[in-house]
Amino acid sequence: MQEWEQEEPLIIERGKGAYLIDTEGKRYLDGTSSIWVNLHGHRHPTLDRAIKQQLDKIAHSSLFGLSNPPAIQLAQALIRIAPKGLTRVFYSDDGSTAVEIALKMAVQYWQLRRPEAGPKNTFLHLKLAYHGDTIGAVSVGNIDLFHGRFKSLLFPTAEAEPPYCYRCPLNMTYPSCRMACLDPIERIFKERHRELAGFIIEPLVQAAAGMLTSPPGYLKRVRELCTKYNVLLIADEVATGFGRTGKMFACQHEGVSPDLMAISKGLTGGYMPLAATLTTDEIYQAFLGTYADFKTFFHGHSYTGNPLGCAVALANIEVFKQEKTLARLQPKIKTMARLLQPLRQLPYVGDIRQWGFIAAIELVEDKMTRKPYPLEARMGHRVTQEARRQGLLLRPLGHIVVLLPPLSTDTSTLARMVAILHRAITTVTAAPSLT
Ligand SMILES: Cc1ncc(COP(=O)(O)O)c(C=O)c1O
């Protein structure tokens, strides 16, 4: 905050399509989709209309013992587009709460299913995982910069190395490694499956870690291991859901159906805070009983199933259909890869990772040794500040710069974004303080 207070504040007042407009009238390209949430551009007429129409009926009524038409219709729509087998929907407000709910449901499920067995209440997750900022979500996360200070508050978990191919923890190379990083995971399953309630994973892309993309077949193998060892697979699709990876959900690239799935961010196309945890009928059934059985899942938020949020989320799914968003995205994903290609030649660009419409540029102090810039150098921040001066808003993750435009971004706008990014990296890495 001390440094932020010294920077020129940027106050966004309006938006249109891929642009954000500040209080001075200056236009910026929205290179992060306003942190993953915006899909069809700002001020989309269908989404604007959905909120206005719902507002004419009611803004909010609770989901405690009640329901509302948009919440019901949205649950039906979500089941239609979700990976097969996910047929039950539990609403909440944001990605972190959707994850908390998945964790709590998994623990309670095992208590209800096998009351006689010992506690099955530990979670396996990957190192460098990020599942949100609430305490349960932080417990299954592992990014020291964000989470380290709170260690004393967290519950114990089992951790495994992620598939970070550029910096392989096993010093191997894909594909000759044959995904050897899955072997230690299987060992953990073998030794600890009795106590493991679930394996929580960001499918295909570990986002906050710096867009670590898993090799093809990795997720499918994780699903097989979970099934073999009777551990629930919890897919955190908060970031990857709603088209970001090129399919509606990342799990669908590998034909994977998780047991629980957390969604938020793109759920409302960037209009309202809303989240959901989807699960199977098998898990739902375990919670049924008379009141006196006390099988109820005692978890609820005041704004759960908010009608405005659900109405705009329904419209969001409708726009996917009307505008053939996913089909139109495919050539743009290829264009993004082509546009990013020349950046690979830059002397301080170590790696470029892309999956779908998500790209990350990993900046390194030394390309040969892959030595990253130290955090204190704020390299990513400096690049994004330069990009901002040139009219593109991005976010850094340490020495990694992330580009994820709204899915509706046309190719010429995409080219403009990449050109600014290119110039910003060149300008900042050539600065005298770094040579
Ligand atoms: C994979 C993943 N899970 C959960 C979250 C938390 O979502 P929220 O910020 O809406 O709480 C995020 C946020 O970036 C995320 O990337």
Walkthrough of the structure:
Helices cover 35% and strands 18% of the residues. The protein has 435 residues and is an alpha/beta fold. The strands form four sheets. The protein has a seven-stranded mixed beta sheet with strand order 4-12-11-10-7-5-6, sandwiched between helices. Strands 13, 14, 15, 17 and 18 form a five-stranded antiparallel beta sheet that branches. Strand 13 and strand 14 form a beta hairpin. Helix 3 (45-55) packs antiparallel against helix 11. Bound molecules: pyridoxal-5'-phosphate. Pyridoxal-5'-phosphate (PLP) is lined by residues 94-96, 99, 130-132, 202, 207-208, 236, 238-239, 264.
Largest beta-sheet characterization: 7 strands, mixed
Give the names of the bound compounds.
pyridoxal-5'-phosphate
User: Numbering strands along the chain, what is their spatial order in the largest sheet?
Assistant: 4-12-11-10-7-5-6
Q: Provide the structure class.
A: alpha/beta
Percentage beta strand: 15-25%
Helical content band? 25-40%
Question: Mean pLDDT score, rounded?
Answer: 96
Poorly predicted regions are none
> What Rg do the Cα atoms give?
22 Å
The number of E-state strands comes to 18
User: How many angstroms separate the termini?
Assistant: 28 Å
